[in-house]
Amino acid sequence: MKKRSILTILIGVAVVAAASMSVTVTAQDEYKLVRQFGKVKRVISSPGISLRIPFIETVATLPKKTLLYDLSPSDVITRDKKTMISDSYVLWRIEDPLKFAQTLNSSIESGESRINTAVYNATKNAISSMSQDEVITSRDGELSDMVMKAVGSNMEQYGISLLEFETKQLDLPDDNKEAVYERMISERDNIAATYTAEGSSEAKVIRNTTDKEIAIQISEAEKKAEILKAEGEQEYMKILAQAYGEEERSEFYSFVRGMDALRKSMTGDNKTVILPEDSPIAQIFAGE
Is 44 exposed, middle or buried (0-12, 13-18, 19+ CB in 10 A)? Predict the structure, then answer.
């Protein structure tokens, strides 16, 4: 009885062990590769529980999530033969786990090695097509777009999808950084001086044109004023002629003019006026 109990226990343990080995649990962020005699028989990409044949089928796991690969800083040469240091990273993921397993033997390190080579070559080619000034002043995302376009679909042969390329830093070597910055500052100063000179020249032309137009307008205004003044005086004389054309009005006008002349002659504290008898003003007061 004792031997039979031990045998039963051993059989139970074996059954439990076999049952546990036949169950595969797949998480949300992973692939399961089921291999039979070393060859991938099927890929489990949906999360959940699945079965496999114990001892015959083995299971390997690959990440299904987005991965980050940080490239080592490397020297690149610009079109004008200047050295720059590129420090960048990529986001990638395994899109086809079967192809990844077949071409790279399910090795993440091998995948990163392929990514490193492809991205470095694309970065080197992109920067070599631009001058150093163009690289420094390039817009955000411009270099990323060029690298992604250069890599294209090359990584698909490994079952890899390259999601994004970003440059953390694109810098100059320390030995020529200061010289480049000084040259760029000098160039910007020259451009600013050119703009200032052009602006001053245009301002002078505008001022001269404006002064000329103002002078013409003033001249025309003065001309019109003289014409209006002459016309006013002419009209004034016409009105006087009409007003004092009759004898009575003429005498009154002479009287007013005489009184006005007398008023103007009485200046200072002495208000005494001595007139000769033949004076027109004396004759006015004499009633002649």
Answer: buried
Could you report the per-residue pLDDT of 130-168, keeping only the tens digit for each?
888 888 777 667 888 899 999 988 999 999 999 999 988
Where do the H-state alpha helices sit in 244-279?
247-265
Backbone φ and ψ of 103, nearest 5°? -90, -30
Q: Residue 187 in contact with residue 136, Cβ under 8 Å?
A: no
User: Is residue 96 pLDDT above 50, yes or no?
Assistant: yes
- What is the pTM (predicted TM-score) of this model? 0.55
Cβ-contact 284, 255 below 8 angstroms = yes
Nearest-angstrom CA–CA distance, 227 and 105 = 105
- Name the token pair of 32: 């399961």
| C-beta atoms surrounding 252 within 10 Å | 13
Q: What is the enclosing helix (H) or strand (E) of 90?
A: strand 83-94
User: In b/e form, how buried is each residue of 171-192, taking b as 16+ CB within 10 angstroms?
Assistant: ebeeeeeeebeeeeeeeeeeee
**DSSP per position, 189-241:** HHHHHHHHHHHHHHHHHHHHHHHHHHHHHHHHHHHHHHHHHHHHHHHHHHHHH
Q: How many CA atoms lie within 13 A of 52 on its CB side?
A: 24
Q: How many CB atoms lie within 10 A of CB 160?
A: 24
pLDDT tens digit sequence for 244-260: 666 566 666 666 666 77
Mean of the per-residue pLDDT values for the chain? Answer: 79
Residue environment code for 208-226, b if the CB has 16+ CB neighbours within 10 A, otherwise e: eeeeeeeeeeeeeeeeeee
- C-alpha 279, offset from chain centre: 92
Taking the C-alpha atoms of residue 113 and residue 155, their distance in angstroms, rounded to an integer, is 11
